[in-house]
Amino acid sequence: MTATQALRKEVKKYIDKADDKSLRMVRAILEIDQEEDFWDKLPEHVKADVAEAKLESEKGEGFTTDEVMKRYEKWLTK
Fold first, then answer.
1. What is the pLDDT of residues 35-55, one digit of tens each?
2. CA-to-CA distance for 23 and 13, rounded, in angstroms?
3. How far is it, in rounded angstroms, from Cα 69 to Cα 60?
4. Which of 67, 63, 66 is nearest to 53 (CA)?
């Protein structure tokens, strides 16, 4: 028996004893897990921009979140 099979068997024991609220929570988690990842829906040029920004960040280039927030704070206030 694989680790995954053993885990399924253990989880099924809990499912058989779970109340309605717990079952709804488990179902919600499983439904979210089955949804397509938003990343897959992004256009290729956006993915390329994100990859480039990540590389810049790893090199210490670009701006921190705090720097960006300070720069644009006048547009973020009500």
1. 778 888 889 999 999 999 999
2. 12
3. 18
4. 63
Contact 47, 39 (CB under 8 A): yes
To the question of pTM greater than 0.70 for the whole model, the response is no
Collapsed DSSP state (helix, strand, coil) of residue 75: helix
**Hey, where are the domains in the chain?**
1-35, 38-78
**Phi/psi at 16 (nearest 5 deg)?**
-65, -25
- Give percent above pLDDT 90 in the chain: 54
> Which band of pLDDT confidence, cut at 50, 70 and 90, is reported for residue 78?
low
Give me 63's structure tokens: 């701006």
Quote the CA–CA distance of 9 and 6 in Å, as a whole number: 5
Phi-psi label, residue 63: left if phi above 0, alpha if psi -120 to 50, beta otherwise: beta
Amino acid letter, residue 52: E
